[in-house]
Specification:
By secondary structure, this protein is an alpha+beta fold. The protein is built from 9 helices and 7 strands, in the order ββααβαααββααβαβα. Strand 4 and strand 5 (165-168) form a beta hairpin. The longest helix is centred in the C-terminal third of the chain and has 20 residues, at 209-228. Residues 175-276 form the Tail sheath protein C-terminal domain. This is Major tail sheath protein.
């Protein structure tokens, strides 16, 4: 019954205004395309996405040929993420089938997302199950004249050996300096999906000032949460009068602006060492105390 309809009596009208909680989208999910001629066709039908909740158990039905079983084992060495697999037919030539060994990277990325967060880059985290790499990469923590440093300077992440093997390098291949680091790109993607998916509730509601306020306050609350958890340096949300004039508003369009500052990785740490005699100034006092 509408509030404007005649009614002789008492009625309760539910008011559902206010901010809504925003849930961050899940990122610890792996998706890959693999081959295997002898995999269990029931569990891994050809050309069909399959959701795996236990990659280690699924690897037992992945067969012995192709890349499927090895990829699942490589992921399970790092963590046990939700994994979506599409099994495809083996190529007629090796070139059609061979791919870079990215499964351990995917598994490690999912592990970092789960254990630390998407704001942490892939670099300097031990990779389980790696016993060697195909090319020698010279690396030294205090020496810039190394293979690893040269690769990193060209925005290429490599594997180094230090207490096992670990990826070394936090930069992406983006031409935009704003997204120079891998975790900057991930932060942007996670925020975009999180904010968009969290506001379906607002679509088609009456476009009133209170609705705009609820959206803004909800995003601000999410920014405060992400800041307190260390996922962001900070962020804010606001209403811009310049773009929200009467024309877009009467067309049912509301522009909401927000910004954020991602957490930069500590890539270069210059420690400035000095020798001094100032700590001898209280030597006598220490002796006589």
């Amino acid at each position: 019954m509408s509030a404007t309809d005649y009614h002789h009596g008492v009625r309760v009208i539910e008011i559902s205004e206010g901010t809504r909680p925003i849930r961050t989208v899940s990122t610890a999910v792996v998706g890959m395309v693999c081959t295997s001629d002898d995999a269990d066709a029931t569990l891994f039908p050809l050309n069909t996405p399959v959701l795996l909740t236990d990659v280690l158990a699924a690897s037992g039905k992945a067969g012995a040929t192709g890349t499927l079983a090895h990829s699942l084992d490589a992921i399970s060495d790092q963590t046990k993420p939700l994994t979506v697999v599409v099994r495809v037919a083996q190529g007629e030539t090796e070139a059609e089938t061979t791919a870079f060994a990215t499964a351990r990277t995917l598994g490690l990325r999912a592990k970092i997302d789960n254990d630390t967060g998407w704001h942490k880059s892939l670099s300097n985290v031990g990779v389980n199950g790696v016993t060697g790499i195909s090319a020698d990469v010279f690396w030294d923590l205090q020496n810039s004249a190394t293979d690893a440093n040269l690769l990193n300077s060209k925005d290429v992440t490599t594997l180094i050996r230090k207490d096992g093997y670990r990826f070394w390098g936090s930069r992406s291949c983006s031409h935009d300096p704003l997204f120079a680091f891998e975790n900057y790109t991930r932060t942007a993607q996670v925020l975009a999906d999180t904010m968009a998916e969290a506001h379906m509730w607002a679509n088609d509601k009456p476009l009133t000032p209170s609705l705009a306020k609820d959206i803004i306050e909800g995003i601000r609350a999410k920014m405060r949460e992400l800041k307190s958890l260390g996922y962001l340096i900070n962020g804010d949300c606001w209403y811009d009068d310049n773009v929200n004039d009467k024309n877009p508003l009467k067309a049912g369009r509301l522009f909401i602006d927000y910004d954020y500052t991602p957490v930069p990785p500590l890539e270069d740490l210059p420690l400035r060492q000095r020798i001094t005699d100032r700590h001898l100034a209280d030597f006598a006092a220490a002796v006589n105390s």
